[in-house]
Prior knowledge:
Layout: H1 14-27, H2 51-66, E1 75-79, H3 86-101, E2 105-109, H4 110-119, H5 129-138, E3 141-145, H6 154-169, E4 173-178, H7 192-197, H8 202-206, H9 208-217, E5 218-222, H10 229-235
Parallel strand pairs: 1-4, 1-5, 2-3, 3-4
Amino acid sequence: MMNAEGRWVSRACECQxxxxxxxxxxxxxxxQRYRDCTLDAFETNYKGADExxxxxxxxxxxxxxxxxxxxxxxxxxxxxxxxxxxxxxxVGVLQRLxxxxxxxxxxxxxxxxxxxxxxxYNAQVNTxxxxxxxxxxxxxxLVLDDLGAQKPNEWVWDTVxxxxxxxxxxxxxxxxxxxxxxxxxxxxxxSDAERAAREPSLxxxxxxxxxxxxxxxxxxxxxxxxxxxxTVKRASFV
Length: 238
């Protein structure tokens, strides 16, 4: 084709562009279960849907439009109870950035990643910890799904700190989903009765230091409401 200066230049055909998109999506390792999770497919208009879901979708769309110039290395953290569509939105953002911005992305299940790292310490396993973490460190856009799901201990906290601090220092985009309330460990500020009755918080699961780091790394997106899978989807099969 001819450019604005009147010179003939080569341009990739549409099929080649699609093939490159598909290769980037395959490299992102999005599980088959979530392949159809796009922003356009996210439901917010069903009966009883909380307004926070519409706001979350709007934030996700705005983030994609702003990436990468106006996001400045920041990511998103979707916070809410199970079944609200946090992973759907995270994958929807990832897919859009891979397709439309050419980003090199990666999906990681938090619990599975930690188990694989622990397994790498087995002398009979050929994969090393560094080999497992290298793509996590390098991904231009990382989705870390279900943060806090693994029972916490010092090793878990150290591993989470290594991942988050490395990505923070390199100004890489991290998209988090978590079922745990974004509150400090130990129920600080609560009465003894409230502290005894409360559910574990994100601070309890990953440590307050890393929770504070996430506040610098990510825009928090709170999602509320009933479990979509237990209400709307189940009702559709009745």
